[in-house]
Amino acid sequence: MNLEDLHIYALRLGKEVIDVGLVDPEYELTRLSSRRRGSVLLARLKNRGDYPVYSNLFTSRIDFVKLLSVVGIEDVYDKVEGFSVRDSLLETVSFWDFFESVSVDLGVLPFIRYYVEDGGYYLTSSIYIACFEKICNASYHRTMYLSRETATLRIVPRHLHYIYSKYSEKGLDTPVAMVLGLDPVQELAAALSPPLGVFEVEVGASLGGEHRVVKTPRYGIPIPASASVVVEGVLSRDKKSREGPFTDILLLPDIEREQPVFIAEEMYVSKRGPPIIHAIVPGLWEHLLLMGLPREARMYTDLKRAVPCVKTVRLTEGGSMWLHAIVSISRSCSEGDARLAGIVAISAHPSVKHVVVVDDDIDVDDPLMVEWAIATRVKSGEDVIVLKNIRGSTLDPRSSNGVGDKLVLIAITPRNEPYEKYRRVGIP
Fold first, then answer.
1. Fewer CB atoms near the end CB (10 Å): N or C, the chain?
2. What is the mean pLDDT of the chain?
3. 287-421: what fold?
4. CATH architecture of structural domain 75-273
5. Residue by residue, what is the 3-state secondary structure of the chain?
6. How far apart are CA 126 and CA 153, in angstroms?
7. Catalytic (active site) residue 78
8. CA–CA separation, 223 vs 201, rounded Å?
9. CB within 8 A of 163, min separation 6: which ones?
10. pLDDT, position 85
């Protein structure tokens, strides 16, 4: 991504780019982004970093509809869940046609401290690409600055962790490429969770993102050719350092941990123009959407398969697009279908904590309507399902190591009573 690319994508999404000038690398971008949801913000950091940053490109589901050039959000779900990956989608081109080498110095990158509670300065759009044998993976990992040549990143037990463990078993450090400034489609692809062995960069190409890849000079790692900055290095198998606290998606400070150290060995910048890097403000809309939308898509797909009369699913902003879900069903659904829908929603996204099932006369995007449905259509002795001691999200502070209780509220009209008894009167 460069500045021209940013303006092109902002125009595609129907947004204005506002240059807010120099900002303090502590907290100021968080304040500005939280107050200007409808605009893409462009900023430069005072006394830190050589590269501009932008935020608020993704602030609603409609942004992804426009990004993928589809009609509605259900089409986005179909795209990200039904992608077709073919090796021929990726075209390998010369690395040096797109990048030039620069001195290794992580300090020139736009590390930001977003909240007072954060334990350091972070990159939040850092995507790490690694391969083991024929398996490649691209995924987001927040990165905390340590020194010119070192940083720590949070690795959860998913695909990068698998690759890291395989190298460690062989007594080797893990070669990785930290990539910044990908095009928005490739950023979306890196937020997905395809099966192990499906390369997210190929998924991004299938969705319409950059299809050209280059192989990094030191380790031969395939990366999108349009990236802004690439840092080659290794994840140390034995050197660990403090990572955190860091404000997570729930706007709660995640705990401090010992995590692997990334040792930077080579650094490259794009020849396409001055790089520009995405600053994803933790706990705000871009963070919620990039984490939550892929899970919402999985829920919709699984729900439609199991309960065809399901109409809509939403992970709510109030639940940080992680812990709360609303499912709407048609009135052709039975009460048994409604209960099954609640269980399937939990199965499709195990981190979800509370599910509310409503009829399709309730606007799932209007929290007041949903609350009205709960108030008027729920009988607690019959319509509340509690599942105790179920695996959920480690982010939930009420869980114990990710195990906690879940709740399904069946807020639909009783099928054995007249609908008119529960019909909401409209404003004349």
1. C
2. 95
3. UbiD C-terminal domain-like (3.40.1670)
4. Roll (2.30)
5. CEHHHHHHHHHHCCCCEEEEEEECCECHHHHHHHHCCCCEEEEEECCCCCCCEEECCCCCHHHHHHHCCCCCHHHHHHHHHCCCCCHHHCEECCHHHCEEEECCCHHHCCCEECCCCCCCCEECCCEEEEEECCEEEEEECCEEECCCCEEEECCCCCHHHHHHHHHHHCCCCEEEEEEECCCHHHHHHHHCCCCCCCCHHHHHHHCCCCCEEEECCCCCCEEECCCCEEEEEEEEEEEEEEECCEECCCCCEECCEEEEEEEEEEEEEECCCCECEECCCCCCHHHHHHHHHHHHHHHHHHHHHHCCCEEEEEECCCCCCCCEEEEEECCCCCHHHHHHHHHHHHHHCCCCCEEEEEECCCCCCCHHHHHHHHHHHCCHHHHEEEEEEEECCCCCCCCECCEEEEEEEEECCCCCCCHHHCCCCCCC
6. 9
7. no
8. 8
9. 130, 131, 132, 135, 137, 174
10. 60
Domain spans, the chain: 75-273, 287-421
Nearest to 143 by CA among 126, 156, 128: 126
Catalytic residue (one of 118, 173, 248, 359): 248
Q: Is the pLDDT of residue 49 over 80?
A: no
pLDDT at 84 over 90: no
For residue 258, the cross-strand partners are 242
- Residue 362: both structure tokens together: 């309730």
CA-nearest of 320, 319, 309, 321 to 358 is 309
pTM higher than the cut 0.85: yes
Residue 142 has pLDDT above 90, yes or no: yes
The DSSP bridge pattern shows strands 324-329 and 354-359 to be: parallel
Dist CA 205 CA 251 (whole Å): 32
